[in-house]
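#dry-run=false #mode=assembly
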Amino acid sequence: EAQVTQNPRYLITVTGKKLTVTCSQNMNHEYMSWYRQDPGLGLRQIYYSMNVEVTDKGDVPEGYKVSRKEKRNFPLILESPSPNQTSLYFCASSSGGTSASRNEQFFGPGTRLTVL
Amino acid sequence: GQQLNQSPQSMFIQEGEDVSMNCTSSSIFNTWLWYKQDPGEGPVLLIALYKAGELTSNGRLTAQFGITRKDSFLNISASIPSDVGIYFCAGTTSGTYKYIFGTGTRLKVLA
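#status=ok
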């Protein structure tokens, strides 16, 4: 089944304790992206990757890191989490490239993160 | 960061009614997208629009790409209970891989 998976689905942590949220897709997609969803703010793009070893900042990259060493994986790293990073996080992927299909992003199920 | 203004924020409607929502931006986009998010899940793409003035349907859903390129509209006809969820618009510009999402319209359908 074609899907985007995220782990963990739920995480409660404390300020300053480094964490990684994994994202994996099995559709051979070139493009992957991370979003955070907060009440009243919709989804905001954190980072995206057009292909292996190619990443760029979205609208709200501060406090986050990403890496794209393999096509299927795009982990989100919080080196020193703070309470304002408490949010619902979504990973998404699409075929990428220049065709219209690059806009058809498939989203993962979400990771609910709480930073105390 | 940039955001799209989406309205209304929430709607309560009776089953069978038609629904309209819209999205406006201070910037021009050349692609508009509409997503639906069911409770506890990630958004799912409903309709993609690529040309100013374009009108595209997907079943009971119809979306339009505004002539000014700064707005888009989504209509749902004859709503049913499974239409419940949050609807998001999103815009992007060719040559970039950045997506700007709206703040969402939460739809509740009363049977």
